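Write out this protein's structure.
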Amino acid sequence: MTADERAKLAEQVARCARDRDLTVAVAESLTGGLVVSALGAAGDASEWLRGGVVAYATAVKQKVLAVSPGPVVSARCAEEMAAGVAAQLDADAAVATTGVGGPDSEEGRDPGTVYIGWWVHGQTGSRLYTFDGTPEEVLDATVAAALTDLLRAMDAAERRAS
C-alpha cells in the first residue's frame, strides 16, 4: 500500500467519524503506533480522534487495556484491546492490532499472523489475517486492514442503528 492509499483510507475513516459524530480510539501492539499516526494525519482529527495506546508488552495490555491472561496473538486479545482502549479514552469506536510481524514465530504462530479487533458502541468483532512478506510489508498490510475494518465496523453500526 502506498502512502497515498493509506492517507485515502484514513480520510474515509475521518469522513465517516465526522458524518456520524463518532469519536475513535486505537490500541496497537504489532503496529506500534502506525495506525493512530495515519488517522492523526487525516482531516479534522482533533474533532474525532481521541488517541491511541501502544501496548506492546503483554503486561501493558493486561494492566492498561484490561486484556485477560492468555495468548495475545488471538481474536480475544484483539477484541479486548479495542474494548479496553474505547473505555480508557471514552471513544465511540475503536480498532486494535495484535499479531506476529516476524521474522520469527511467536506463541506458536507464524510471522504474518495478524488479528484486527474492533469495538463500536459496544459491538465487538475481529478478523484473522495471514500476510506474506517482510516485517515491514506485514506492518503495512496490517495498517491497511485495520483502517478498512474500522471503516466497515462503523458502517455496520450505522446500518444497525437505522
